[in-house]
């Protein structure tokens, strides 16, 4: 009897000290599942944070791109404006460089016209070849001077019969004349000239007074009859 008992005890497998007790496997499995879920949640949070960081980076880069594009367009516009301004300055310098010279030449033209205006009408029909050649020479010189001035954009300002313009005309006196609208130029004492779009010399004129104002004159003008 004792021998069988000893044999039975001898046949039982020895129990290891670190072996978990029976029924502990389910607890270990639950802990492992919880740990896996925690790791998955942490990884998901990291992925979300990384995705958010990428989106923020893209948004920041897009904003910087927009800002740089705007600066580039502004710089290009400023450069174009500077180029146009420089070209205009060069053109104005070329056009108006002869302003002083042209002003002096106008006096030469004035003297030629005065000389021609002082000639008696009978002298134009003279048979004297020398006098005739002299008059024709002065007349041709005056015309050639006008052509040269026009070639350099120096043109006469319209005055006679025009409405007075203080930017181009200088009123020297008034002429009572009720037959024309007030402010109409009826006499020209000295021709005016422009160079390009600038007034080189204002025309010295006499202006009518006593007539209707330009607005009233326009209203009093006869209207065309209906057909």
UniProtKB/TrEMBL annotation:
Highest taxon of source: Bacteria
Keyword match Cell division: no
Compositionally biased tracts (Low complexity): 23-50
Keyword Repeat recorded: no
Listed Basic and acidic residues bias regions: 1-18
Positions in coiled-coil regions: 51-85
Span list, region Disordered: 1-50
Cell location: Cytoplasm
Keywords annotated in UniProt: Chaperone, Coiled coil, Cytoplasm, Stress response
Transmembrane segments: none
One function term, GO molecular function aspect: adenyl-nucleotide exchange factor activity
Primary location recorded for the protein, binned into one broad class: cytoplasm
Annotated InterPro entries: GrpE, GrpE_CC, GrpE_head
Gene Ontology biological process terms in this record: protein folding
Any one annotated GO CC term: cytoplasm
Family: Belongs to the GrpE family.
Known function: Participates actively in the response to hyperosmotic and heat shock by preventing the aggregation of stress-denatured proteins, in association with DnaK and GrpE. It is the nucleotide exchange factor for DnaK and may function as a thermosensor. Unfolded proteins bind initially to DnaJ; upon interaction with the DnaJ-bound protein, DnaK hydrolyzes its bound ATP, resulting in the formation of a stable complex. GrpE releases ADP from DnaK; ATP binding to DnaK triggers the release of the substrate protein, thus completing the reaction cycle.
Subunit text: Homodimer.
Protein name: Protein GrpE
Phylogenetic placement of the source organism: Bacteria, Pseudomonadati, Pseudomonadota, Alphaproteobacteria, Hyphomicrobiales
Gene: grpE
């Amino acid at each position: 009897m004792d021998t069988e008992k000893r044999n039975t005890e001898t046949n039982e497998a020895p129990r290891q000290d670190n072996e978990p007790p029976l029924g502990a496997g389910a607890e270990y499995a639950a802990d492992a599942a919880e740990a896996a879920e925690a790791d998955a949640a942490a990884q998901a949070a990291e992925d979300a944070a990384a995705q958010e960081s990428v989106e923020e980076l893209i948004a920041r880069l897009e904003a910087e791109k927009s800002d740089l594009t705007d600066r580039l367009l502004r710089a290009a516009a400023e450069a174009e404006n500077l180029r146009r301004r420089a070209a205009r300055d060069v053109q104005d310098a070329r056009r108006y460089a002869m302003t002083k010279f042209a002003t002096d030449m106008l006096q030469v033209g004035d003297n030629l016209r005065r000389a021609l205006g002082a000639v008696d009408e009978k002298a134009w029909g003279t048979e004297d070849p020398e006098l005739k050649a002299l008059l024709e020479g002065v007349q041709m010189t005056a015309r050639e001077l006008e052509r040269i001035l026009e070639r350099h954009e120096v043109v006469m300002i319209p005055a006679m019969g025009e409405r007075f313009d203080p930017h181009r005309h200088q009123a020297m006196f008034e002429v009572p004349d009720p037959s024309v609208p007030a402010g109409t130029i009826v006499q020209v004492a000295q021709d005016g000239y422009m160079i390009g779009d600038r007034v080189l010399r204002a025309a010295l004129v006499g202006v009518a007074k006593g007539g209707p104002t330009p607005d009233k004159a326009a209203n009093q003008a006869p209207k065309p009859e209906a057909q």
